[in-house]
Amino acid sequence: MNKQQSKIIENDVVYAKTTLEERGIVSPMFVLHGKEEVIPILAQLGDEESKEKVSKLVRTMIKSHEIEFYTFISESWYYKANKLEGALPPSKHPDRKECLVISGFRKDGEQKMIMLPFERKEKKIIFEERVETDNAESRFNFFEKNKFIEFVKKKAKEENVPIPSNADGVIKKVFREMVKKDVVEGRRTVEEGNRILKEID
After folding, report:
1. Could you report the per-residue pLDDT of 21-34, keeping only the tens digit for each?
2. In the structure, how many helices (H) and strands (E) does the chain have?
3. Cα separation of 155 and 45, whole Å?
4. pLDDT at 91
5. Virtual CA dihedral for 75, 63, 104, 45, nearest 10 degrees?
C-alpha cells in the first residue's frame, strides 16, 4: 500500500473503533476510492443471497467507476488457529472472539487486513492486540481473480524466469484447484467457490 492508502486504512480503523465504542455495533461498509470521488456503500450481509447481491453491486460499481482501491469495514469472528485443528469457520469455533475487520484491496493484488479482537465488559468495549496480515483470504476481495496471476508474474520477473505465452491459462488452472480445495476444506462455501470459478473463466 502507498502512504495515502495506508492512511485511509488507519482512518477506517479509528472510525470502526469509535463507532463500536459509541454505538455498540458497526454496520458492514465498502468504501470505494476513485480518482476524484469516494463512494461509501452500506451493506446488508445476512444470508448467502444477500451477500451475493451486495457483491454483485460492489463489483459493478468498481468496474463502472474504474476503482483501483477500496476498503471494507465489518464486524466478524476471530480465533487463533491451531495447525492441528481442522478447517472450522471462526463463527463456529468454541474459542471465537468478536472482532472488527478493516481490509484494504488494490487492483494489482496487494491487500492488507487488520483485525481488532474485542470483548464486551459492563457495557464497555475492551480491545485486544490488533492482528495484521497481507495474505488473508476474503470473499469480498473483488480483485481476487487477477491477484494470483499477477503475483506469480511479479515473482517470475523478479527471479528473471521467462513467462510463456500460455502463462495465464496455466496459472488459472492452478488457481481453480486452489479454490476447489478451499471449498472441500471449508474455507469457502460451495456458492462462493462456483462464483469465483465462473469469474476466472
Report:
1. 999 999 999 999 99
2. 5, 7
3. 36
4. 74
5. 10
pTM over 0.90: no
Place of cell 464497555: 124
Tell me the torsion sign for CA atoms 22, 118, 14, 53. negative
Residue 97 contacts residue 78 (beta carbons within 8 Å): yes
Q: Which amino acid is at 186?
A: G
Nearest CA among 51, 29, 12 for reference residue 139:
51
Question: End of a domain among 133, 165, 183?
Answer: 133
Question: For 50, how many CA atoms within 13 A lie in the half-sphere containing its CB?
Answer: 7
| Distance from C-alpha of 96 to C-alpha of 78, rounded to nearest angstrom | 5
In a domain, 126, yes or no: yes
% of the chain at pLDDT higher than 90: 43
* Domain limit, last residue, from 75, 102, 133: 133
